[in-house]
Predict the 3D structure of the following.
Amino acid sequence: MAAMRNIVLVFLSFLVCVAQTPPSATSPDPNMPRPIDAVDSVFMEELTWLEVRDAMRAGKKTAIIATGGVEMNGPYLATGKHNYVLRATTEAIARKLGNALVATIVPYVPEGTIDPPSSHMRYPGTISLREETFRALLIDIASSMRAHGFEHVIFLGDSGGNEVGMKAVAEELKKKWAGGKTTIHHIPEHYNYPAVTKWLETKGIQQTPEGHHDDYAITSILMTVDPDTVRMKQRMAKGKFSINGVSLTPQAKTIEMGKKVVEYRANVAVEAIRKAIGAAQSR
């Protein structure tokens, strides 16, 4: 017992010492020089805090907050379909803007009631948030970006169930932040698959929906990120490497088209973002 008591006393003493230690002794200097070269990434989670700091100092003061989802996506696509799509489109958007970083891709969103299960929650693998949880999460992430000094916060999503919450939070924070240095914008133009389908038709891609919660645009984008997410090898082995009546072979051709779809969606989003920021700055 005596030995245990001594251990507890030592631990408590350590906690007191940590609490009383000046911040300068435990935290790095915010202005310390970066000791190594920065990596070439627009995703904050891949950057060190020094790389984020220096990117902001170089003018990257637009933060993109993207919302995806983990849900049932038919028999061929990974449940994280929307998150993989955003991995491609948000990078393209940030690089085209030239002054942006991707703050985060929010992987969990409202997918239906949990108890009793509804909508996508009727299928295993789906992860759902309550709407109030989703909105609170967006508020905290956006507020974090504002606290760090980002001048523009951008909400965009890749799933229909996310749009209402993003729009509501953007409107709420727009009022709360009025008069400040940070603006916030919801960009619904990013989530417009009917427009993408029509664009694909101009490229000769005609689809006949099969009811799989999947289409050529989504599959081709996922293939630019990781062909395993569309189960390419398994489908080829079973003679099922097509979607909505459109063959996905040869692989290289589909990936090339996927890159063009990403380019198209990024251009639409960038135009909408610049328009929204321009309108806010002219007020």
Observations:
- The chain has one domain: 39-282.
- The beta strands are 62-67, 100-106, 152-157, 183-186, 242-243, 246-247.
- Residues 6-12, 14-19, 21-25 have pLDDT under 50 and may be disordered.
